[in-house]
Amino acid sequence: MVVFRERVEEQLVNTRKPTAGNVQAGFAPDQRGYGPAMTSSGVTLAGAAVMIAGATGGIGSAVAGELHRRGARLALVGRDEHRLHQLQAPGQRLALDLRSPEACRKAISEAKNRHGRLDAVVNAVGVVAFGSTSELSVDAMEELFLTNTFLPIMLAKAALPELEHGGAIVNLSGVIAEQNLPGMAAYGASKAALTSFDQAFSREARRAGVTVIDARPPHTETGLAQRPIEGTAPSMRPGLDPNRVATVICDAIAEGATDLPSSAF
User: What pLDDT score was predicted for residue 18?
Assistant: First the structure.
């Protein structure tokens, strides 16, 4: 287990400030002829280069499919190479464990090198644990915050200076960030911390012309609840279809939305 305290200094360094070279007035298609047009209202997804972290998960794979349908060029990132190659959506495959700054930088660099640009990053990585705070192990607590909080911060830090002006970063926090629940307190706290980060980071990213979207879909049928890192899931009502969630997220990227509360789904 990687103890997240050892990574705090690396993870919390301020993101690079925009320079005159990457902040421009107005938007235009890539001069090489294959990039999308950027508008103040969002990213035109046809031709856009989009990296999806957690692409083998329920929401990540659905987002990949929807982006492909809309004409985006994809970089698909996941830990399991076999599951990556089982994805239906075409695109670059990057088998990486993003729980380190180095891996986040590598993912962004390889995605941009492959496509010549990077227009959006969707982070759908996440883990869940169940059980009361008194029962939850310290290892599980650390894993929740490393994966659900620090990983998105590290990925956002790596992505911001590489994204095209007018680009977007999407983080999946979830409805539990709006109202935490007993038996999921640490999990909910890790997601609420991500929402808090997104709220402040969005104002930093705006200076670089990048939109940050915090997506908080209600319970979705991704299978994640059946794969907790600790504990057993309580009984839950049927969740949303991942394809519905993916459609809302892709609409938000295209329309330049700045927040996706649970009510948006």
Answer: 35
Taken in order 166, 171, 174, 178, is the CA torsion positive or negative?
A: negative
Question: What is the average pLDDT across 215-244?
Answer: 96
pLDDT at 218: 97
Side chain identity at residue 164, one-letter code: E
Looking at the chain, the whole-number percentage of residues with pLDDT higher than 90 is 84
Reading the block at residue 225, the tokens are: 């609840």
What's the CA gap between 131 and 163, in Å, rounded?
Answer: 39
**Residue 25's pLDDT band (boundaries 50, 70, 90)?**
very low
Q: Of 105, 78, 103, 71, whose CA–CA distance to 92 is shortest?
A: 78
Please answer whether residues 228 and 148 qualify as being in contact, where contact means their C-beta atoms are separated by less than 8 angstroms. no
Position 165 scores a pLDDT of: 96
Report the alpha-carbon distance of residue 240 to residue 212 in Å, rounded: 23
C-alpha to C-alpha distances, 14 to 132, 200, 207, 208, nearest whole angstrom: 34, 12, 13, 14
User: Domains in the chain, start-ordered, CATH in brackets?
Assistant: 37-264 (3.40.50.720)
pLDDT band at 229 (very low <50, low <70, confident <90, very high): very high
The residues that bridge with 75 in the sheet, in sequence order, are 51, 92
**Residue 7 to residue 209: CA distance in whole angstroms:** 28
Q: List, in sequence order, every residue forming a beta bridge with 52; answer none if it has no partner.
A: 76, 122
20 closest CA partner among 207, 199, 195, 202? 207
Give the three-state DSSP class for 194. Answer: helix
Q: What is the DSSP letter of 175?
A: G
Contact 221, 239 (CB under 8 A): yes
